[in-house]
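Cont'd.
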Amino acid sequence: MNDAVATTLVGILGITGSLLMLFSAIAMFRVRDALSRINVFSPATGLGMPLIVAAAYVYDLHSEGFSWGSLLMALIAVLCLIIVSSVASNTLSRASVLSGQPVYRKTAPNRLARPPAGIVDDDPDYPDHPRAGA
Amino acid sequence: MMRFVHGIAYLAYIGWAIVTGSATIVTRLFRPGQYAQPMIVEVPLRCVTDLEVTMFASSITITPGTLVTAIAAGTSTQPPVLFVHALFEDSEESALEGLYDMESRLLAMTRGRAPTTAASTVTEVEHEEGSP
């Protein structure tokens, strides 16, 4: 692999990954509640960080030459990033719901919001049709 | 052998979903108007074992734009239920359709063939809840 190809590849992969992190951070300001913020951050963890790892691997491949050790390290790093960030997002979102964080009021339909047990939730104007997904 | 083929296909599908979902989140930043339409939908699962449910929940969360917010355990009469927070879907039906498509591919990987039964809808599950 010659210098130009390696430099270009490292640049494309690394800058794309960094831009994804930046745009995810900007997107976090465009949404309104904790759940959506956890949601829009997944491009950074699911695609941005693996791309940066790929850039680091290409740079290593160019400067040090091929070795099975570094290939294995890069593959394990990408796999672990994806699995760990997914499980971490799950844990964060469940913690945010269980701790009673407010959900953005325009979230519709919100199937998690159920009336507490014992509350009669009928619309007095339409007694035959209980409100769906209230 | 079929499981292996389905597994490769599933990995490719998840990778493609990550790329397109990231593209959606980034491109909508530069579009005027409302950024997202958040909704929380209820997904009754056809997954049975712990491994299937865990893998499905992780796959949903790693896909940008969808996030698992709560998991309800299944009982002998009703399936386990995931509550999924979706940001960029047009309607509840299209959100559920995409999730069931992903679940079919996942079950094809773990069981060797795609499930033939259609997913039970939310209304059916709620009907079963009411019956003793």
